[in-house]
Write a structure and sequence with these properties.
about 210 residues, alpha/beta, Rossmann fold, 2 domains, 4-stranded parallel β-sheet, 3-stranded parallel β-sheet
Length: about 210
């Protein structure tokens, strides 16, 4: 029987990345839920937003999902302190990403375009590393004046800005990763242009999800 995986996104552009990650998995049906308003509200403060996200997850559960995948790091950060009383698995997209990063001993740079996601993501990463007794040399870097491009639908300009930063960092011979789904396409383009591998949240996602819901 096919499993229904409800995917909660903060922007519609993330849908295609999740579809790509599961394109060869026949026994999973993806059902997408998008609420772009939360990104706008986070910059004004988080009061009331936790309740809103919990309400959304409960609604998704009521739609007969077998599991829920949260693809937005803002959503994940908001729910970190909350106890969710759901009867289905809640999968956070950054967990397999963190697992990969914790296996790297070289100095690392994690790239972001949305400054609002940095604090929550890095806090969760540090907690994950501590729980797994990993000591890492990690720096978070925001590519300034870039996130608004993807929000305006200027995808090519967005990808170009990310690729330029990747080429610059590659000269420093660092282990580089991109933390947001919207950055995956640019990372893949860069990999084709160079001999380097860029870690991103999709690389081990499907395997991780299938392990959680089967």
């Amino acid at each position: 029987m096919r499993k229904k995986l409800g995917c909660l996104h903060a922007h519609h552009s993330n849908i295609e990345y999740i579809e790509q990650a599961f394109q060869n998995i026949e026994n999973v049906e993806l059902v997408h839920f998008v609420d772009p308003g939360l990104i706008q509200q986070v910059s004004k403060g988080t009061d009331g937003l936790v309740f809103k996200v919990k309400e959304q997850l409960e609604w998704m559960e009521s739609c007969n999902m077998d599991a829920i995948l949260i693809t937005c790091t803002n959503y994940i950060a908001l729910l970190e302190e909350e106890h969710l009383e759901l009867s289905i698995p809640i999968i956070k997209i950054d967990e397999p990403f963190f697992e990969t990063l914790c296996g790297e001993k070289r100095p690392q740079t994690i790239l972001f375009t949305n400054s609002e996601t940095v604090e929550g993501t890095m806090k969760r990463f540090q907690q994950y590393a501590q729980q797994h007794e990993k000591t890492l040399d990690v720096v978070a870097k925001v590519i300034d004046n870039t996130f608004e491009l993807i929000m305006q639908g200027k995808k090519e300009a967005y990808n170009n800005a990310i690729r330029q930063t990747l080429h610059h960092l590659a000269e420093e011979q660092l282990y580089i990763s991109v933390a947001q789904l919207s950055m995956v396409e640019a990372a893949r383009q860069f990999e084709k242009e160079s001999t380097l591998t860029i870690t991103h949240p999709l690389k081990s996602l499907a395997k991780f999800v299938m392990g959680a819901i089967e």
